[in-house]
């Protein structure tokens, strides 16, 4: 008899984790609080209920990072992808699904598996023993949230995203932008050039404010608002408080000299800060926003140096419980202070259905392997799954950590390929070819006996 794996949460991540562990020969109990305890977003008690979009985004495994993640999960026998494929709807190059039949089918598959059972009721404390995966997602219950805070420290568990847009480094015009920290702060050259600066003259600033104020915004859902926002306001709210507010806040031009035009003082400056250890991604500092995605792209491309920017992630503010994973989790998704507990899904700081399910797949395999006496290493960082887990458990800066979708900016660079927009097609194909070979190798070495 092997030890039973307990999983808290029956969303995308929890369902996938249970399936993977059970397929490897481990008995699993899923603890799901719904329908006994509801949330403001869920409508049913089904497992893997889709509460937002019905899209798993691009299914292109050669030119898109999320499509590559689809491919990796299919190769690993993922329940979420198998079910999505059976219930897909026409959506061009995307994978969209018929949401209710999809969640009903996941629920039925879990119920039919001889090694999985589902128990109702809320888990509101961290277990002291056993093998556990917490996959409670962005709507973690209040009781469990308090228990996680007590264990990790209140500053290491967030209840809202305040997401600034992230730009691919190779899409920034460095003939306009220059590298400099405000007042040249820092003891090393790297610290003194830690920020990229986009200068605006007065006319550009006024046009930017006009566009910001006129842009379409999303509204908060019931249950999403909180006093949190007083400390981290959307940029459009700051602009509404006065046209000069941003110029005296995140866009202040002080302590900076334009390396391209040192004799011209910028009227305002937008700063970008490196967002990952590889230096392939930069976030726009202080630019959390509730603008709709299309409006964000139009408005942010008005920033000098970002006219041709490609975005790895757009901004947002919404309800989302997540850990400061770089400071709390090891590369096996274990809580460092309680290694018998793993975390999976959106609560780890990944964004999106597919990314959440992928972390469930990984946590389920790792937990099952531990129960079976096998030390399963994380997948290579050159794979989509490996790039994600590397990012959330160490590749991202813990001080500025925010949830992230999978994207090629998280992958280690390729040698001998052309950078920039013109080389993108060959570069992306190189990423996916490399990832597929390494993922297959990892799967072969990661298969535990049933």
Automatic annotation (TrEMBL):
Q: Which residues form a coiled coil?
A: none
The family this protein is said to belong to: Belongs to the MnmG family. TrmFO subfamily.
What Enzyme Commission number(s) does the record list for this chain? 2.1.1.74
Its GO biological process annotations read: tRNA methylation; tRNA wobble uridine modification
Single Gene Ontology MF annotation: tRNA (uracil(54)-C5)-methyltransferase activity, 5,10-methylenetetrahydrofolate-dependent
Give me the residues that bind FAD, please: 9-14
> Which UniProt keywords are present, listed alphabetically?
Cytoplasm, FAD, Flavoprotein, Methyltransferase, NAD, NADP, Transferase, tRNA processing
Please list the cofactors this protein needs. FAD
**Subcellular location per the Swiss-Prot or TrEMBL entry:** Cytoplasm
What Gene Ontology cellular component terms go with this record? cytosol
Residues covered by the MnmG N-terminal domain? 5-373
* The organism's place on the tree of life at top rank: Bacteria
Q: Please give the Pfam families that the UniProt record associates with this protein.
A: GIDA (PF01134)
Q: What does this protein do?
A: NAD-binding protein involved in the addition of a carboxymethylaminomethyl (cmnm) group at the wobble position (U34) of certain tRNAs, forming tRNA-cmnm(5)s(2)U34.
Record Gene3D superfamilies: FAD/NAD(P)-binding domain (3.50.50.60)
Q: From which organism does this entry originate?
A: Pseudooceanicola pacificus
- Its recorded name reads Methylenetetrahydrofolate--tRNA-(uracil-5-)-methyltransferase TrmFO
* Swiss-Prot/TrEMBL catalytic activity: uridine(54) in tRNA + (6R)-5,10-methylene-5,6,7,8-tetrahydrofolate + NADPH + H(+) = 5-methyluridine(54) in tRNA + (6S)-5,6,7,8-tetrahydrofolate + NADP(+); uridine(54) in tRNA + (6R)-5,10-methylene-5,6,7,8-tetrahydrofolate + NADH + H(+) = 5-methyluridine(54) in tRNA + (6S)-5,6,7,8-tetrahydrofolate + NAD(+)
């Amino acid at each position: 008899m092997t030890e039973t794996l307990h999983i808290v949460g029956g969303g995308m991540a929890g369902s996938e984790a249970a399936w993977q562990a059970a397929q490897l020969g481990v008995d699993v109990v899923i603890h799901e609080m719904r329908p006994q305890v509801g949330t403001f977003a869920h409508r049913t008690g089904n497992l893997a209920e889709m509460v937002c979009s019905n899209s798993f985004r691009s299914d292109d495994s050669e030119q898109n990072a999320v499509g590559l993640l689809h491919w990796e999960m299919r190769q690993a026998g993922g329940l979420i992808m198998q079910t999505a494929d059976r219930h897909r709807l026409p959506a061009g190059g995307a994978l969209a699904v018929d949401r209710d039949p999809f969640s009903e089918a996941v629920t039925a598959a879990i119920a039919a598996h001889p090694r999985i059972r589902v128990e109702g009721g809320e888990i509101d404390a961290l277990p002291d023993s056993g093998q556990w995966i917490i996959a409670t997602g962005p709507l973690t219950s209040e009781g469990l949230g308090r228990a996680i805070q007590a264990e990790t420290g209140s500053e290491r568990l967030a209840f809202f995203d305040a997401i600034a847009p992230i730009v691919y480094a190779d899409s920034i015009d460095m003939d306009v932008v220059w590298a400099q920290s405000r007042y040249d702060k820092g003891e090393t050259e790297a610290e003194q050039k830690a920020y990229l600066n986009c200068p605006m003259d007065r006319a550009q600033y006024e046009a930017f404010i006009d566009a910001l104020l006129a842009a379409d915004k999303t509204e908060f859902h019931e249950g999403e608002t909180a006093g949190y926002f007083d400390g981290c306001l959307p940029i459009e709210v700051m602009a509404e408080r006065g046209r000069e507010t941003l110029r005296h806040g995140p866009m202040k031009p002080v302590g900076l000299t334009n390396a391209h035009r040192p004799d011209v003082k910028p009227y305002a400056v937008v700063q970008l800060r490196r967002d990952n250890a590889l230096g392939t991604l930069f976030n726009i500092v202080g630019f959390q926003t509730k603008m709709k995605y299309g409006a964000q792209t139009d408005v942010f491309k008005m920033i000098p140096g970002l006219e041709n920017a490609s975005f790895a992630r757009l901004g947002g503010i919404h309800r989302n419980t997540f850990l400061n994973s770089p400071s709390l989790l090891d590369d096996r998704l274990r809580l460092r202070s309680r290694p018998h507990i793993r975390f999976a899904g959106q609560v780890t700081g990944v964004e999106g259905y597919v990314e959440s399910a992928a972390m469930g797949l990984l946590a389920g395999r790792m937990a099952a392997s531990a129960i079976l006496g096998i030390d399963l290493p994380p997948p290579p960082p050159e794979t989509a799954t490996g790039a994600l887990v590397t990012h959330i458990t160490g590749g991202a800066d813990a001080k500025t950590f925010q949830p992230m979708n999978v994207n090629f900016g998280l992958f280690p660079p390729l040698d001998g390929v052309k950078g920039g927009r013109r080389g993108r097609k060959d570069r992306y194909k190189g990423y996916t070819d490399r990832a597929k070979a390494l993922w297959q190798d990892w799967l072969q070495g990661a298969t535990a006996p049933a």
